[in-house]
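Reviewers asked in the last cycle whether our approach scales beyond single polypeptides. To address this, we selected a multi-component target totalling 189 residues and predicted its structure end to end. The input consisted of the following lines:
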Amino acid sequence: MKKSELVKILAEKSGLNSKLAARVVDTFFGSIKEALKNGDRVEIRGFGSFEIREYGSYVGINPKTRKKIQVPPKKLPFFKAGKELRERVDKGKEK
Amino acid sequence: MTVTKAKIAENINKKVGLTLKESLQLSDEIIEIMRSALEKGENVKVSGFGSFVLRDKGRRIGRNPKTKVEIEIPPRRVVVFHPSQVWRREINKK
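The resulting structure, written as structure tokens, was:
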């Protein structure tokens, strides 16, 4: 499912026009990014939580050239699935 | 601080101009649409944000780190999140 399909389903279910539905979807994900940028974590009940994790520098190897390179420290958004999502996804595999 | 759905709905209310109640309902809808897709075995990709990808994990032996008792962890399906390249760059730029 792509964002455009998410927007289309949201518009159908809610009766909003697609332009408005697109703005709602963008604001939804934009709010998560904004919160993490401000140093907050985001917790959405039944779906999961987002936080920024910091990773230290390490020595990596370019698999093609086999050259060693120093990978600089970085920050990455991390998502942990919540209970309901975890359970539904796992049950879904049987279908 | 922890941001929750209520705060996200508040942003929708302010920025899009829908009522708080509608904004909360729409947030719930978005979450449910994504959950249903993942439940059906479909990955969800949100451009500029990231992808929620399903992974099938095999059976393995786990251990309770405290008691050291071994238990079998059955095969399961899990969701992993890959942030988009755009977002990764945004976060790491100085």
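Chain B touches chain A through 51 residues (CB under 8 Å). We regard this as preliminary and will revisit it once experimental data from Aim 1 are available.
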